[in-house]
Amino acid sequence: MRLIRNLVRDKLGITSLLFLVLVMLMGVFAPIIAPHDPLAINMPLRYASPSWEHLLGNDHLGRDVLSRILYGIRASVLWIFLALIISVCIGTVMGFIAGYYRGIVDSIIMRICDVMLSFPVYVITIAIVGILGVGLENILFAFVLMKWAWFARIIRTSVLQYIEMEYVKYARTIGLSHRSIILRHILPLTFSDIAVVASSSMSSMILQISGLSFLGLGIKAPNAEWGMMLSEAREVMFTRPELMIAPGVAIISVVIGFNFLSDSLQVALNPELRQPSKIIE
Amino acid sequence: MGAYIARRILITLPLLLAVSFLTFLLISFSPVEPAEVILRAQEVPLITDELIERTNEELGLDKPFIIQYFHWLISSLQLDFGNSYVKNEPVWNLVGPAFINTFKLTVASTIVIIIFSVLIGVICAVNERKMVDRWMRTILFVFTATPSYLLGAVCIYLFSVKLDLLPTSGMEGVESYILPVLVTSLGYIGIYFRNIRSAMINNLNEDYVLYGRASGLSEYTITWHILRNSLQVAVSIFCMAIPLILGGTVVIENVFAWPGLGSLSIGAILNRDFPIIQAYVLIVAVAFVIFNMISDILNAMLNPRIRNDS
Questions:
Q1: 3-state class of B90 per DSSP?
Q2: pLDDT per residue over A171-217, tens digit each?
Q3: What is the complex's ipTM, to 2 decimals?
Q4: Residue-range domains of chain B with CATH
Q5: Interface contact flag, A118 B274, Cβ < 8 Å
Q6: Contact A115 B18 (CB under 8 A)
Q7: What is the pTM of this model?
Q8: Inter-axis angle of helices A65-73 and A226-235, to 10 degrees?
Q9: Do B145 and A278 make contact, defined as CB atoms within 8 angstroms?
Q10: Count of CB contacts below 8 A, A vs B?
Q11: Least buried of A271, B26, B82, B158, by fewest C-beta within 10 Å?
Q12: Mutation target among A131, A262, A273, A274 for the B interface, most CBs of B within 10 A
């Protein structure tokens, strides 16, 4: 695919992609690579500075910060990524139905999207967490519930655009089935649009969800999550500000990675953006 | 133009109705019975089924769903959101002042965002690809990737604790606005200045700029003209910013103990105080819809092409 070929040529883009893949793999294999049990409390080591045994030091309960960061990838990145994929899938299906079949179905789906998009994400998340109770799964549920509408709209727009292409019209004329037109001729084209939107939503989702965890609405203690680690570190901010560094750097670098990736995908999609006058970076 | 505005307002009305219905529907999905929460909050020692039934009757919770909804809608329109389960006080007495505080924070942040996005955008566009431009973009890029609560905590640590210049939290005087507004604005400035910058750079390549230069206008005058043409982008972006900030201050309000809707709603979640959550969701969603409508109308006024596109 052209998108991937262009992306590989973009050094920053491919570096970000590799970095993010590496982070996710570290999250998946956290039990193997983490040096300690992230939940093991070790009171004699409270607030210990970094040492060879505990590379990033220990927190207020003497737990190993590095292991908590590694396990934290799961809640802070992997689960969010899963929620993103689910909402992209729902959005793609809905967007395709709306854009391809048009008519009354289209109107209904789009009106539902209008309603979903009239709630700010934070507000609906708070409503859902308020009803179903505190927990990461409820926050993710709220995000899926809200975000699919956003993806459905974007995908509908690109389906409308591609459906007008000559060869799609030709495929319809010669009587190819809807299924094969969608799967073989339109879906591959929309993939790149989906990738751009998904990667840029990923960074805002990471920031928002970690913010909700910071407020104590997310994952339940003692599980590790970066936003909650920052919240725990804030309690002792005046005496041990260094505890904020590790989770802070973790979040910032992953978000920067996704931002770079989405910018590079955008350029890979429309190489004319690379022209000096229009550069977006 | 009148037709566009009328149409836009007509679309908004059913949307508001749908929003209110969804808000009401959401609360009804709660696995916990409201009557039970109320009785717990009133510290009733023994909660029997009979007691729950009686409370339901008192609150009209035994009526059919759709009737409950219309009751709720009509009283909500009169700003009567019922009583808080926990504080036993009218919800509006708690939510009203909080909304005003959140709105103050939103407006102050929007003003700061407008001023600094335009200023930095212009500086970067004029010095495109020079040192200033590169540094500004790098610094703001990092800020947009920084969680606002982390930025808030660092600011409190630096300005309030180490330098002892500003209050750590609360809403007392003008100086208590500085940190929350700064932290709210930084993330948005980092996004919006790029739009101003690229709009200005696009304008730099237009014929009228070349003509202006050829006729010997000063760089200052030319920049002013470009800025005027780029401001349309600015206005449309900032209209969109108000509803976004309004719906997103939850985290920052909690970091700075700002007595707004965000702080109120988190407390309500932890107490399962449904009327407050309901009122919060409804008020912010309605404000969000209305500000989006205003921003669409303003955009259409500035850009005639949008008007004809239904």
A1: strand
A2: 888 888 888 888 887 888 788 788 888 888 899 899 999 999 998 88
A3: 0.84
A4: 2-77 (no CATH), 95-309 (1.10.3720.10)
A5: no
A6: yes
A7: 0.85
A8: 140
A9: no
A10: 143
A11: A271
A12: A131
